[in-house]
## 1
Amino acid sequence: MSPVNFDEQINRREVPSLKVHPRIIGEGDVFAAGVADMDFRAPAAVIEALQRRLNHGVFGYETVDDGLMPSLINWLDRRHDWNVEQRSILRAPNILNALAIAASLFTEPGDGVLVQPPVFFDFFDLLKENHRTIISNPLILEGGRYHMDFDDLEKKAADPHCKMIYLCNPHNPVGRVWSAEELKQLGDICGEHKVLVVSDEMHSDLVFKPHRYVPFASLGSNYAQNSITCISPAKSFNIAACCSAFTIIENETLRTAFQVENSRLTVNKNNAFANVAMQAAYEQAEPWLGQVLIYLQANVDLVAERLQDIPGVELIKPEGTFLLWLDFRQLDLSTDQLTDFLKIKAGWAVSRGYAFGEQGRGFARVNIACTRAKLETALGRLEMAVSGLNS
Ligand SMILES: Cc1ncc(COP(=O)(O)O)c(C=O)c1O
């Protein structure tokens, strides 16, 4: 495959892109690094497959192409050493929908659902809107790396009201790619206390060497039987706007209940473009993914290098995802001051840390899936803004 030019500047304002929408980033020339998608064009193989489908011109009701599920099964086996049977896979419109259905089916209003903040903010909104009680098991930051607090997890999982955990594997925003040992420890605690593990594995393909994504359900039958995996190629191939998702549920009782709920809510309708894009991605875009991971790693390295000259801003080294978790606490700004500083002085439209839970105060999540030139400019602006603070 010839090299992909990830340096090409593509004007995202030509379509109603959320990442650069004035409602999200305001007006003016800002570094749009909040919304979690990439500025890069999707893999050529995906675009060509979509064009062929578009050229057909008939968009009546469709079923799923026989090749779609095998494309996912082969992908999981080939890249992640996870052997999944086709009957365990259900379709979902998107990951958040699958998370919401899992909570509404397998917990009651008022029941507790564990989350591990700082964590993807939509977990909080979704649980609140579904009237579930959020139980926090905060991650611990030690020596620049986050890890799980298993003693606290054990205590909270033992609460009879606690029925479920939303696991984020790999973790948005702190960039941890959980190890088999960590996942097993979590799985053993949850298994013992009958806490169902709902594992959001959206970022599974975006992992930097030498780290390795371990699917929670691949750890063994007892882990698979007490879990629901939500997965999608949306982030991996930058196709969020024309993508759907999958739930992988080996436990037959849970799967049947999920299937019945999907039918009741009529979420089974097929979107031809999503199906075509996903299948082409899994079957033909692996070389593109290899290249984008190299580009993203170089962007991470650039940030790490430049931050050495920017006092008071620390990078939490990511093991995966294109989202960086930056620690601004040493700048000694209040939450509002940090928001204004990033937005007004640095021109950075990023995700504010406290949206990921109280533990995120003083941090920000920054999406680095952009051209190197854009990142260079953004880092230059940050450096100037920080030096302005100190002068
Ligand atoms: C961890 C995680 N889960 C889910 C989503 C959203 O998934 P979807 O768009 O399929 O609902 C995101 C998007 O940023 C995410 O980071």
## 2
Amino acid sequence: MSMLKNVWHAAAWSAEVADRPFARTIAKEPVLLYRGTDGKIVALNDTCPHRFAPLHRGNIVNGEIECGYHGLRFDKAGACVHNPHGDGTIPKSASIKAYPVVERDTLIWVWLGDPALADERKVPDYNWLNEDDVYDFSDGHVMHMPLAWDLILDNLLDLTHGAYLHPDTLAPTPGLRTETDVRRDGERIYSLLSTYDAPPPPIWTATGAATGDVHVDTWLEMRWDAPATFFLDVGVKPTGGEREEGNALPTVHIITPETEETSHYFWKMFRNFNRGNEEIGAIMEEFATRAFQDEDRPMIRAVQERMGGRDFWDLDPVLLPSDAAAIQARRMIKKMLRDEETARARAEDQ
Ligand code: FES
Ligand SMILES: [Fe+2]
């Protein structure tokens, strides 16, 4: 699937970017990030207009990026401000694209599209990532995935795959009494799954959130905002009990496309139980890494290879009730892509 530009893409965790050049390709654009002298994030296209050197191979000098090939220097707005050659005249065309950028809730978001449309109020809401008085957090992780972003989106909105792909890590075994539902709240989609009166999945016993074979109810509520930002509220509670009596292990998942076939997968887990126990934190991260890297990744990769670059809809997929959330999301994204295309064509005509 093509990639949207007029959206906020997660570019990095805050902790990844310091006052040194940091490079990441986002929706096929090479992006350079660094912190300026005031600590604020600068986001520029990572290509020098002289001989097209990747600027991240250079150095930051007084808050400006100096190209590591011939020394042209650019400020945070992308204007060339120093030319060490000849009489020092700045060539007229020597500038690079600067992207709108927002740092919020331990994440850095960039806007690759029309800067006039970059509305900071639309940065996805992850404000609870600051609530370290309530939760113990894992580090912010980012996995490079050889997977198209829309196939990861399908995977995350379909919670029923857990019973088949993750019975040894995250999910209950197949065949349990489960309820699924899909809800819409404006442009936000929720995919819900509950199980009842069943042995707890492995991650819950391993982290001490549930004990052995004492039956529990589980809840999973995946929240989706376009294009691919997710929050999974997930927990176990005593059979027939209330959520307040249970333990929660929520996860942030954010997928940023890199190319048509590769993605950056940002994730972070947190828990409201066994707080302060680092061993439990390590177990929780190990389960999640295993599930994403060793269980989801090879299956989605195999799907991608079998699809062979053909469009999802052109393949006429069989649809199940559990696909409802992903199908609604795909339809919304398709419309957003169409709208972007129309706006671009109109701008080119003018
Ligand atoms: S390539 Fe950057 S100054 Fe020459
Ligand atoms: Fe999965």
